[in-house]
């Protein structure tokens, strides 16, 4: 068996162990207990980025027409809860409180609010919301940067109050 070329941009699912690791990430999608590796965040993000367009494409193939914007919003909303629990476990990995996962809320909620406004009231509704929401856009940008930093920072080595080191477990 040949090893994937890391520099050549091999697709993530071509790496040995990707599918079992993905299974573990999905199994822990709705629990905030324990710790999560940075790899878990990457696997969730890559899977979500492939899953949403795939689900919409399959839905359009079955329905035989373009799916409404509501389907895109529903899928995005469904992916929010597992992301928040994963983020809480990332906080735990570095010995922090999982309550810091709430930092992600402005960055997750604002696009949802704008999407719902667009579905219900069209572009006019979005344009009327912009003067009210632009200060929150800056908050969302800052919190999104904090979330990215939190996801990229290494966890604490060894066990902590939230459990064993997930890197040691394999």
- What string gives the helices and strands in order? HHHHH
> Beta-strand percentage?
under 5%
Tally of alpha and pi helices: 5
Helix/strand-derived category reads: mainly alpha
Question: What is the helical fraction, as a range of percent?
Answer: 55-70%
pLDDT < 50 stretches: 1-10
Question: Could you please describe the fold and organization of this structure?
Answer:
The chain has 170 residues and is mainly α. It is built from five helices and no strands. Helix 1 packs across helix 2. The N terminus is likely disordered.
Keywords:
disordered N terminus, mainly alpha, 170 residues
Topology:
Elements: H1 18-27, H2 38-63, H3 69-93, H4 105-152, H5 166-169
């Amino acid at each position: 068996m040949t090893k994937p070329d890391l520099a050549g941009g091999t697709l993530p699912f071509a790496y040995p162990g990707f599918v079992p690791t993905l299974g573990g990430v999905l199994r822990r999608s709705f629990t905030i207990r324990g710790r999560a590796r940075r790899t878990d965040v990457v696997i969730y993000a890559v899977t979500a980025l492939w899953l949403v367009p795939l689900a919409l494409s399959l839905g359009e193939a079955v329905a035989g027409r373009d799916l409404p914007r509501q389907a895109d919003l529903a899928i995005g909303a469904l992916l929010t809860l597992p992301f928040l629990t994963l983020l809480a476990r990332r906080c735990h990995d570095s010995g922090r409180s999982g309550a810091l996962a709430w930092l992600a809320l402005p960055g997750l909620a604002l696009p949802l609010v704008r999407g719902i406004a667009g579905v219900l009231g069209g572009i006019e509704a979005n344009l009327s919301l912009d003067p009210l929401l632009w200060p929150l856009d800056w908050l969302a940008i800052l919190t999104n940067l904090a979330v990215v930093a939190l996801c990229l920072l290494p966890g604490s080595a060894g066990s902590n109050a939230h459990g064993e080191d997930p890197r040691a477990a394999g």
